[in-house]
Amino acid sequence: MSRNLITTVLASLPLLVQAADPATAAYEKLIVQLKASDAVIPPAPGVHPKRAMSNGEAPVPPQCYTRTEARHNPCYVCHQDHIEGRENLMNDGDLQRDYAFSDLGMSNHWKNLFEDRSERVAAISDEEILGYIQADNYSELPSRLREAGFEGWIPDLKDLHLGAAAFDEHGFAKDGSGWVAFNYKPLPSTFWPTNGSTDDVMIRLAPAFRRDTGGRDSREIYQANLSILEARIKGFDSISCPPLPESALDTDLDGDGQLGTATRITRLDSWVGAAAGEFIDTHLYPKGTEFLHTVRYVGVGKDGSIGVSTRMKEVRYLRKVREANKAVYARRYQEESYDKDAGALPDYLGIGDNGIDNGSGWAVQGFIENAGGRLRALTFEENFSCMSCHNSIGSTIDKTFSFPRKVDGAGGWGYINLKGMPDAPSLGEKTGEIATYLARVGGGSEFRNNDEMSGRWFRDGRLDHVKLSQARDVYDLITPSPQRALQLNKAYRCIVEDQDFIYGKDASITPPVNVYDHIDNDETPTLPDNRVFRYNILLDWPDN
Amino acid sequence: MRTRLALTATLIGTHAAMAGTDTWFIPLTESAPVTDPSSAAELTSPWVTPAGISQKNIVSLREVEDQVLSYGQSIGRAANLGTGASMFDMIAYDPTGSYLFIPHESQWGAGVTRYDIYNNFAELIFQGDGQGENGDFSNDFGAFDPCRWTPNNTVIAGEEWSGTGRIVEILNPLAPAGEIESRVLESIANVSHEGINFSKKVDDTIYFVDENNSGSIYKFVMSAPGDYTKGQTFVLSVDGFTGIASENWNSATNAPAARTGEATWVALTDEDGVPLPGISDPFVDDFEDLEARAGRTAADDAGGTPYGRPEDMAVSKLKNGHEVIYFTATSEKTVYSVEMLGGKGRKNRNGNKAIVRTFISDDSPKNLGFDATTASLDSPDNLAIDALGNIYVIEDAPNSSSTGGDIWFVRDTDNDGVGESLDHFMSIRVDGCEATGMIWNPVVPTEFSVCVQHPDSTDLANVPDGLGDAVWMFNVTHIEDEKFVKQLNKAKAPFGE
Fold first, then answer.
1. Contact status of B38 with chain A (Cβ, < 8 Å)
2. Can you list the positions of beta strands (E) in B92-160?
3. Do residues A190 and A257 both lie within one domain?
4. Do the Cβ atoms of A327 and B456 come within 8 Å?
5. ipTM, interface predicted TM-score of the complex
6. Can you give the pTM of this predicted structure?
7. Residues near A386 by Cβ (< 8 Å), separated by ≥ 6?
8. Domain B2-490 has CATH 3.90.180.10
């Protein structure tokens, strides 16, 4: 009997049978099963996955329960009003000012936040965790998935565990898979290494965007289309690009009236090559766009340098399976607001091994470590929580973060490298984005529980601008000391052992103080108007 | 064809006696859990119902799009819209009960499919050119939500949240598909149409609503009975409403304001449809600003009372003989009744005064006298009336949780426009869908149909082996309450809607 058939049969049992097997038991049972399982495909709950969820408001992330004390505002990074021209009409800037949780959402279900892991962390030696994070848990994943009959996307980028070594100087994967790495600035602040994770992101466009009109692969056409995409996503009028031979592309990319070598593209109204006739608009990816995002431990080199680990915490994958114009997105946002007004909980369609359909064109899928550290596919609820960031906040562009935050133009193609990266301001601002964040939040993380960041960049509770000015780059600003890195890695390792990711994945050693276990929409203090900020996820890089 | 139209005319000309009955079934006590896409439950009995009610699938995307099973048939499916590609909405019977007209609420490429029930043949008889996908609705239509058979033996369909808020009239709905003729009724104000219905008491009035959180209630009084192309438009204004018409029903100003009680139909135009001084033109097809709804602006000018997303609307008669319209206010979890107070003269005989009451809401008693239900009234959307005048409320809620949406029976035995109990009638368990278009058969009073709209399986890329949007037919002949069945069978035609 196939997995799907089992699920179907169980789901069709009479109501009384389901009532005797409540969901509260189902998700606890699933955690027990996950701890014992070495399979690459997780066990299926015995009920419809939506009824086996512990937290129907999983798209509300732990950070939303930050104790803001009417002045500390990390909320602005996600919750923003519409910016003209963009597809994102979530318009949730008011959530900086007001709580609007559902009844269920008012309780903080991320109970891992409240777990003290001090003793468990202390029991893990530095050598042990270093050995652990240096191990490769990626390379075996594709074959394991194939053997298990997995029908979703199977990782197809060779040697990705090696990080930068898997790519050439322009970011192209050396294996010819079409994946292209780009250099971006991590979003404040959960994705700062100092808060527990490193990561990398790759993009791949559909085959037509990589080929000429004759169907032949063309690196130049691919580079041109990637550059056009970057400009369209960012709403730019032009963008720099690697030197591209216009005659080979038969397109005057730079608009100078000649077919020479283009280093800047001004002609952005259509794709080039085989994709020339495909739909194009600002702030939207074309159908077939894929993102590969690996979340990793904080790697510590022999010289104490911080970088990506070999071991992956998660392998995340987005694929745009359905493209739509902005009117479709507008309707989606309208429906979502109607549902929320009606008190309905968020709902997304599980699409089997392909993950979850976010309803806005993207299939969202991922893999995470099992108790032994091998990667396995996400459960429905683990996957469900991805919807917080990849669907229902106002600051994203076509539901994405990293690509809009790519270093502009030709200089931004290549594996992520925080060294030498300036603290570019958010578009429309003058002060560096990280410095601004630290000032607005009053700490180096949403929960203001990063003592190392506080010690580095604050003095007497105030931001130390002198020290900030001495930081050479983003690396200096947001990477932890080796000691902190190891502690955070150990803390996360405990969560891996527990397999209770549905209760939160924040690598905290002791429970943060500045977090609510319950919020009352009407009573909990909120931020005053002078602590509410406009913010653009785009960055004002020195040169595009 | 001539015979059929003659019968149609006969049936249209009568008016059923309306009086609510007692609850005729044992109400449910909980909403149904959704099941996996294409589960056995979805494919065989998508609704949990009281005992004795049968259900069978009569048409689906799956069936019609299979050209082996359904050679030569067609059905609406717009491009690039995933589960929203077909969107069966508020279906309409022809008066003989032989055909169902299925409006497609797709964002573009909206159309109408005619389903010949007894010959099991579906045919797309009307559709725009699909250019709405590119923002061009000059020859396309979006989001057909309502569909009605008219007293003129035509079919109307209306644009709700897409397009420009137009009403399209299909002039010869039973003609071969290639000979279908249609026109846009520019005489009807542009709003987000959902509930639109003809008066059952007078022959010159059409009621309609605007599905918006600042949506109002309208009526159109024809210059000459039967002429839908010219007339006077009114908006309903509650006399005691002290809020701001252009704001949402629950804005800080409007939330405490009275929106029930005595009300007045305020004219937006003269009898020829010319906007009155100070009132914006309510008949603008704004192809540049697709969010605009000229009728809404005109209603705001005239002080139309805002409600929380008025959706479906049904017309009936109260015990005192006055005409009543019921409309759902989805965002308010409420169904209102509007009693017409009568008027003088040939035109506008329902008068310019009315009384608005809360017919039923989530605060109303549920399953009174029966075992309680754990369900609540969420997003009431569609309405249906059986042959005895009972009102059924269909929720638009199931696509937002692991629990299916419900259909409720409103118990109003004294037929005074204020329900006594909200009784839990049915619950759907199809993942990702909502129930739409519940309608009672005009000829077989024991039979009704309901659509499954936008289930997961309409998106073939995700769920290729399901039914997709579908219509299910129910029959109550074998329920335990034989008295109710006898009453239904004795009811005077035409039967419910």
1. yes
2. 92-93, 99-103, 111-116, 121-127, 144-149, 155-159
3. no
4. no
5. 0.78
6. 0.86
7. A316, A356, A364, A366
8. no
